[in-house]
């Protein structure tokens, strides 16, 4: 099952590696016998489905989450292994999609007339407060 991330990234199933283990949480005695926790790992550094720009962006933005160039996500919220697999795929897709979003450039704008007036009034009030704290001049 390939993982598709809009708009143009498709990760082949061969690049994804799965591990299953026993999960804590709901399930009663069934939890003790079933490996329902799913851990999905994808090696960002060695992936063939990424362009160099995408790889650089992912390595930079997900750097703290990567271990040896690989990104891991786990899902153990559900009782079923199949549902946890789907959740892990969704988590990985959302992480990658969020990391690949281009940065928006902030354009500086002029302060509005009202904000400039409020700024000026606040400065005058602070000045008046500080002048009142001064010792009166000896005449």
Q: What's the layout of helices and strands?
A:
Layout: E1 3-5, E2 9-11, E3 16-21, E4 37-43, H1 52-61, E5 66-67, E6 70-75, H2 81-99, H3 113-133
Antiparallel strand pairs: 1-2, 3-4, 4-6, 5-6
Describe this structure in words.
The chain has 3 helices and 6 strands, in the order ββββαββαα. With 139 residues, the chain is α+β, with helices and mostly antiparallel strands. The protein has a domain at 3-99: Double Stranded RNA Binding Domain. The strands form 2 sheets. Strands 3-4-6-5 form a 4-stranded antiparallel sheet. The longest helix has 21 residues, at 113-133.
Distance between the termini: 90 Å
Rg:
27 Å
Strand content: 15-25%
For the report, how would you describe the main beta sheet? Answer: 4 strands, antiparallel
CATH class of the domain at 3-99: Alpha Beta
The CATH architecture of the domain at 3-99 comes to 2-Layer Sandwich
The sequence of SSEs as H and E is EEEEHEEHH
Q: How many H/I helical runs?
A: 3
Structural class: alpha+beta
Q: Indicate the percent of residues in helices.
A: 25-40%
Low-confidence stretches: none
Would you tell me which CATH topology of the domain at 3-99 applies? Answer: Double Stranded RNA Binding Domain
- Number of DSSP strands? 6
- Largest beta sheet: what is the strand line-up? 3-4-6-5
Arithmetic mean of pLDDT: 88
């Amino acid at each position: 099952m390939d993982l598709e991330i809009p708009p143009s990234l498709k990760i082949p199933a061969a690049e994804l590696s799965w591990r299953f283990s026993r999960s804590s949480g709901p399930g009663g005695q069934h939890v003790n016998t079933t490996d329902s926790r799913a851990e999905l790992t994808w090696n960002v550094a060695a992936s063939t489905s990424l362009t160099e720009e995408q790889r650089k962006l992912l390595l930079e933005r997900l750097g703290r989450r990567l271990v040896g160039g690989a990104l891991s996500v786990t899902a153990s919220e559900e009782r079923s292994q199949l549902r946890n697999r789907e959740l892990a795929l969704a988590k990985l897709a959302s992480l990658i999609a969020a990391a690949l979003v281009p940065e928006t450039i902030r354009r500086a704008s002029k302060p509005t007339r009202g904000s400039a007036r409020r700024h000026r009034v606040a400065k005058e009030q602070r000045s008046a407060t500080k002048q009142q704290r001064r010792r009166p001049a000896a005449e």
